[in-house]
Each structure stands twice: as C-alpha cells, then as structure tokens.
Design brief:
38% of the residues lie in helices and 13% in strands. With 388 residues, the chain is an alpha/beta fold.
Length: 388
C-alpha cells in the first residue's frame, strides 16, 4: 500500500473520530429539594441547583413550601453544597404583573434582591416570569415586559445576580401577534441569559413539535449577543411512553447536540419521579431520575459530567471504530506520529481564552459574566414582605 493511500486512510479515520467529540456542558439539577439531594448522593454536587418562588410571597427561598410538586426550599437545596454551586431560581410573576408595575410589591422585590445579594459570591440566575410565552401563564406581552423590567432593574444592584429571559420553546401563545418571542422581549441591557425549555421537542416526532422554536429563540438571542441556557428540561414520558432502553438515543443525545450546537452554557435537568408528585401524577411525565438507572447514570457521567478526562479514550475508540478495512500497522504509525503534530497545530491556531469568550449584552453586571459560576453560605433576607 502506498504512503499516500495510507495517509488518506488515516485522514478518513481522523475525520470520523472528530465528527462527534466529547464536549462538556455545565449542569443544573432540580427541581425540588429531595430530588436534588438524591441526585447529589449519587453524582456529587452539580454546577447549580434549581428552585422556584413567586414574587407574591417569596415562599420557598428561606423557608420550605410544597405546592404538590415537591419541596421548594432554596436555602435547603444549597445547604452543604460547595461555595461554587450556583442557584437557578424560577421566579413566577403570574397574576402580579399590575401590582409590580404600580409599585405595590416593592417590598417583595427589595427582599428578593437582599436574598440574592446575601448569597454572594454564589451566582444566582433568576428566571424572571419564566416561560413567558406559555399559553397557560397568560403573560400579556406589554404587561409582562413592564413587570419584568421592575425586577430586572432592581436585581442590577446585586452583582452576583444574572437575569434570565426564558421561553417555553413550543408554539407561543397567540398573544404574540405573530411577532414570536420578540413580542415579550423586555429590552436591551435587561437580559443576561436567554433560556429555553426542552421536553417533548427533543424526540423530534412529538405532536407538540420539535426543537424549531428553541432554535428560533436561540437565533433571536444570538442576534442580541446574549448567551443561552437550557432553563428546564426532562425526557417527558420516561418509562411511560418512551422506554428507558431508547431514552438516551431518543432524548438525551438530541438535547446534548442542541446544547453543543447552540453553545449552551448551562443545562438545567429536572431529575425526579414526576408520577409520585400530586401535581404531575397521571399526566404521563414518568420518572426521569438518573441515579436509579445504572445504564443512564453511566452515560450521564461519561458524556455529560466528565467528558474531558474521557475525551482521549473516546477519541481513539472512534478512530478504531471508524477505521477503513485494511487499516493496519503502518496506518497506526501514521496516526501515532501525526496526531500530536495536528494537536499542536490546532492549539496554535486557537485564540486565547479571553478571545474565545462570547460577547455579552452590555449590563451593569457584565464583569460577572467573566467569572465562573461561584455562589457563600446563604443568609435569610430580613426585609418585611408585602402580603399576598
């Protein structure tokens, strides 16, 4: 076999190996206290934990509450976790838009800001009026934007706060007037991260649609130069309508591909037994817990949590698997000789880390984007709340 033919075979194997590189993404886990604790017992602390509260009373921050979907308790979820573990907080505005705009809930807004600031240096990502375009939330665009601005402008005083504008990512409520997500956009300088939800869409064949709307949201935010997170996600129907044996290929892999393609900086995964919670029982959500299924847990650890140490093994495994017939000892020598050279060449061409940082929308906390997610022990806010 000629040297040139051997080199072409090596290149073919190399290209095939590079076609699906191991790429890491930061992970947030939710969405209730005990689901988070069960997950961390198996996998250790995630990059962030999820919790929820309403601007109407803020219950679930420094005291536990349960609406039938598990215990919401932000302080409890953070307790015992490393100082770099962030909080990803879903803040409901539903039914309080007018009160926020009038200033009737200023005490609650001040309490929220005080709570977030007290968590510093932990980072807190606040999804203000999350899933703004979901029909069930009934957020009228103009009223929503006005309420969002009240909270967003106040959170600018907390240097560890990051304001998230989060789309449902299915077909939007018809109140958009045909304008899509832009109808709810609160304005430049008020959004630090965009968020999308990924549920049935990742399967690609759901009657509710595919990832088209999630991509549309990502495109909108790319134009604004705002980074993207997956703000909520779970494989809907796990073990109910979708067998566990096909779940990784059918839902996790498409979601991970979306995360990589759209440069998602945080993947928020809801790891819970949905059917055991009264709010969701009988709706077909299933059981998305990773820690109780060894095959899924192994894939999660290998492909999501720890891809960098595994990247070398995965790379050479793919080289071997993609090897054309007849690729033998000579080609192996070529690979051994040329791969290190190629790696050095690629490293030389790569820009410095600060040059690779994706441009952000200008904001008063822009410097915070260049810090990793780092979030000190939580302290309870002491500001008296408005009754609601």
């Amino acid at each position: 076999m000629s040297s040139s033919r051997s080199w072409r075979r090596c290149c073919a194997a190399l290209v095939a190996a590079l076609a699906s590189p191991a790429v890491g993404v930061r992970v947030a886990i939710g969405q209730d206290l005990w689901s988070i604790r069960n997950y961390t017992a198996r996998f250790g602390a995630p990059d962030a934990v999820m919790s929820y509260a309403s601007i109407g009373n803020l219950s679930g921050l420094w005291s536990p509450t349960d609406y039938g979907s598990g215990v919401e308790y932000a302080d409890g979820a953070l307790a015992g976790l490393p100082a770099h573990t962030a909080l990803q907080l879903g803040l409901e505005l539903k039914g309080h838009e007018a009160a926020l705009s009038r200033g009737d809930l200023d005490a609650n807004v001040d309490a929220l800001v005080a709570y977030v600031a007290a968590l510093a240096p932990r980072h807190v990502l606040v999804r203000i009026g999350y899933e703004f375009d979901m029909p069930g939330n009934l957020y009228v665009p103009e009223a929503y934007k006005s309420a969002y601005r009240v909270v967003a402008e106040a959170l600018a005083d907390a240097p560890n706060a990051f304001r998230v504008w989060h789309s449902w990512s299915f077909a939007p409520w018809e109140a958009d007037g045909g304008r899509g997500v832009g109808a709810w956009y609160p304005g430049d300088g008020l959004v630090d991260y965009c968020g999308v939800s990924v549920f049935q869409q990742a399967y690609g064949d759901s009657e509710l649609g595919d990832l088209t709307y999630a991509h549309a949201m990502a495109d909108f935010c790319d134009e604004k130069r705002i980074p993207l997170i997956i703000a909520e996600s779970t494989p809907f129907g796990a073990g109910v309508v979708e067998p566990y044996g096909t779940l990784w290929a059918r839902w996790f892999e498409p979601t991970l591909r979306f995360a990589i393609a759209r440069r998602v900086v945080l993947w928020s995964y809801i790891d819970c037994d949905w059917d055991s919670q009264p709010m969701w029982r009988g709706m077909g959500w299933g059981d998305s817990r990773l820690e109780v299924r060894d095959a899924l847990a192994a894939k999660w650890e290998y492909d999501v949590l720890d891809p960098y140490p595994n990247a070398t093994r995965a790379f050479f495994s793919r080289v071997s698997a993609a090897r054309p017939p007849g690729l033998g000892r000579r080609e192996a020598v070529y690979l051994a000789c040329y791969l290190p050279v190629l790696g050095l060449f690629i490293a030389f061409l790569m820009p410095a880390p600060e040059e690779r940082t994706r441009p952000r929308a200008a904001s008063s906390i822009d410097e915070g984007h260049r810090r990793p997610f780092v979030l000190a022990s939580p302290e309870a806010a002491t500001v008296k709340l408005s009754d609601s």
